[in-house]
Amino acid sequence: MRPASSKSALALCSSISLLALATATHAQTPVAISGTISSIEEGAMEGVVVSAKREGSTITVSVVSDAQGHFAFPADRLAPGHYILKTRATGYDLSAPAAADIEAGKSASAALTLRKTKNLAAQMTNAEWIESMPGADQQKQFLLNCNSCHTYERIVKSSYDADGFMQIFQRMASYYPGSTPLKPQPLAGSATRDGIGRGGELRQAAEWLASVNLSQQQTWSWPLKTMPRLKGRSTHVVITEYDLPNPRIEPHDVILDREGKVWYSDFGQMFLGTMDPATGAVTQYPIPQTKADWPLGTLDLEMDGNGDPWVGVMYQASIARFDRKAGVFQQWSIPKAWDSDAAQFGHLAFPASGAADDKVWIKNSDGGKIYRLDLKTNAYEDLGAFTDPKTGKRIGSYGIHADSRNNLYLLDFSSANISRIDAKTKELTVFTTPTPNSRPRRGRVDAQDRVWFAEYGANGVGMLDPATGAIKEWKLPTKWSAPYDAVVDKNGDAWTGSMMTDRVARIDTATGDIVEYPLPRSTNIRRVFVDDRSKPGTLWVGNNHGASIVKVEPLD
Length: 556
Prior knowledge:
single chain, mainly beta, Methylamine Dehydrogenase, Chain H, 8-stranded antiparallel beta sheet, 5-stranded mixed beta sheet, 7 helices, 37 strands, globular
C-alpha cells in the first residue's frame, strides 16, 4: 500500500487502512488503537507521544508517532474499554478532546489533529527553561541544586528580587531534600543542608535569578527555546505509567525482585512500597519512626541475596531491612554517641549476591563519614571521612557501591573522583574522570566489577575499569540532561535518566550510539533500574514528583 500523504492523513481513514499502515510500521504487531497525527503547520508529525488511559484505571500506555505520523498501541497492552487519548508535542495541543472504544478482538482508529498552543510556558521542561534563560552556562549550573524539590518554572514565574532570593536560599537550606511544594519538611535542630551555594557565589546567583524572573518585567524579555522532538529509533518504544495511590508518594528508587514484583522507596514518607505490574495494585509497608520530630523519608533501595529489600532511612539515621516472610522491619540506628542534627543514612551498599562477610557499608552525610555494620554483632565501625591524598579535600561522596569482594566505591558528587576503599586494608585509591567537575552521582557495579556512574555535572555516563584504572565517558546528546544514575544491562547497553529533560537514554557502549526516548509528561527521575531478562532490556524509573512508576520498553 502506498503511504498516505500528509493531506490524506488529516482525513478520516478506514480502520482497515490504518491497521495496515500501523502494522507495517510496527512489525506486524496486532494493534488495539491505531491512527495518524498531524497539524496544519507540519502535516504528518513524527515524535508525538500519544497516551491512552482507560476510564477508572491507574495505568496509562503511551506510544510515539513515526515519520508518517502513524501511531499504534499493541493489542496486548490495552484491554477492552473506553480510553481517553492525550498527546505530548511541545508547542502543540490537541485541537479537540479525543477518545477511543476498544472491543474484544477488534481495533479502534483515531485521526488526531494538533494546533499551536497558546501557553508554551506550561509545556516547558527544566532543560528548556535553563537553556532559554539568558546567561552563561557557569551561571546556570547553580540551578542544578534546585530541581530536587521543584521545577524551574516556579523560579522564572516568581517575582523575588535579589534580597528576596537570598532569603529563599536560607529557607531552602533548612528543608529536607525530599521536600516538595506538596509536602515541605523543615529540618530539626540546628541542621542545614550544605551545597546550596555550589556553582557560584550566593549574592551573584540571587542577582542573576532576579534578572531572569518576573521581578523587573511583566513577561520574559528572552525567547522560550524548546528541544526538537525525538525521531527515528526514539519512536520505537512503548511506555507504561502506573499511578500511585497518593500524590505525595515520591518513588525515589524503583527496582524489581526475582519474581518481577516492583518495589519502591518513598523519599518523603516512611513507607516501603510494592506494585503488581500486571494490575497496578500497590501495597505499602509502614517503616517505624526512630527519631521523633525529624523529617520522614527513605532513599537508597537495595535487594540482598535472600530477596529481602533494604532501605536507607535518611534523617531518621537508620537503615532498615524488610523480612518478606515475617512481614516485619529490622532497623539499625546510628549509635547515640555518634548521632547529631545532621546524621543522615541515605545510602548503603553490599554486593548483589548478599552482604559479603556479613558487613554492610553505610554513608552518613554528616561530614561524609563512612560506617560499616557487622550483622553478626550489630556493631558499627566508624571509618571516618576520607580525604583526597592529592588535594587534601574531603571526599564528598553521594552514591556508594560495593563490588563482588565488598570493596566500596565512593562517587564524589563535589568533584570528579571515584574512590575505592579496600574492604580488608581500608586503603583508599582515587580515580579521576577525564572531564573536570563531572560530579559523579549514583551508579552500579557490574558483574565484571566495573563501576558505571552518572556524571551529573558533565552531562554524561562514565565507566571505571578498576583493573586498569581507566575511565571511559559517553556524553548525552541533549544538553542539560544532568543524569542522576546509570546502570549497564547484560546486553552491553548503559541506561540513564534525567530530572531535567523528560527523556531517558540508552547507550550502546560498543558503538557509542545513543537513543533517547521521550516520556509522556514531566518526569523527575532518580534511580534507574533495568530488567534485562529480555533483549532489549526494560527500564523502570520512578517519577519522583509525579507519584508514578514508569516502564520504558524499546521495540528494537
